[in-house]
Each structure stands twice: as C-alpha cells, then as structure tokens.
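User: Hi! I'm working on a homework problem where we have to compare a predicted structure to a textbook description. Could you give me the structure for the chain below?
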Amino acid sequence: MVHDVVKVHEEDFDPGQLHAWLKAGEGDAGAIITFTGIVRDLVSGNLEGLYLEHYPGMTEQALAAIVVQARRRWSLGRVVVCHRVGWLQPNDNIVFVGVSSAHRAEGFEAAMFLMDYLKRDAPFWKKERTADGEQWVKQKCTDLAAARRWSESG
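Assistant: Happy to help. Predicted structure tokens:
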C-alpha cells in the first residue's frame, strides 16, 4: 500500500486534492498537518519571477530520504512532499508538505522536520529575476539553523 507521495514537477498542484489523499488513509489518523509554501515577493517588491532548477532523479531520491528520516522519528500515516520547479511568479504554489498521524503533536513536528530538512538537503537551485537582472539565491543561515535543531534534539 502506498503511503508516500514525492513529486517534483513544473505543473501547479491542488492543495485540496493532496489533503484529500492524506485523509483517505486507513482511518487511524487523528491529525492531518499540511504546509503550502508560495513564492513571496522581495522586500523591495520587484520580483518578476523565481526559477527553480533541480537534478531529476537525484532530487526525488533526496526528498524520499527525508521522508524516511521523518518516519524513523514519528509514527506517520500518509506523507506528501510536492515541489515545483521551473519559472514561478509571486503568489504561485511552490511546495506542499503534508502528513497524517494519530496525534497532532507528532504531525506538527514531522511536518516542520520535513520542511527544515527539505530547505537544507534537497538539491534545488533558485534564481531570482528582477528588473535589475537575474541572480542565484544562496542558502540561508536560518534554514541551516532550523535543520540543525533536529540533530541537537536527537
């Protein structure tokens, strides 16, 4: 029986459909936790687009490995990690992470873990386009620190 969905693609996704798939599990889940990330504009307000590049096959394997790590820590039902690539505009969906679990606390923790490790370990490269040109985005120290707290907590 399939309990994990890991997808990387250019097409938009429907958070409602992904939530429905999480809910259609075996009936032992008492919580469904989801996160939908969207492309946000820059502080300056001049983001024209965001380009996400990835290494096909390698990226999906990295995401699946993060899901395996989460399953080792928490008792989870269904898990979804869906990430878009290609050119995206402000307010477009970019990532969806969802988990079903028996209890809300482990669901919240698992969803946060998945996002924190995705931001640190998944091989995605981002390029921002503004009126001033294009530039690749460096990984944020805050993302590294967020993932580090999980290794410090066991």
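For your comparison, note the following. Residues 14-150 form a domain with the Aldehyde Oxidoreductase; domain 3 fold (CATH 3.90.1170.40). The first helix runs from residue 15 to 23. Good luck with the assignment!
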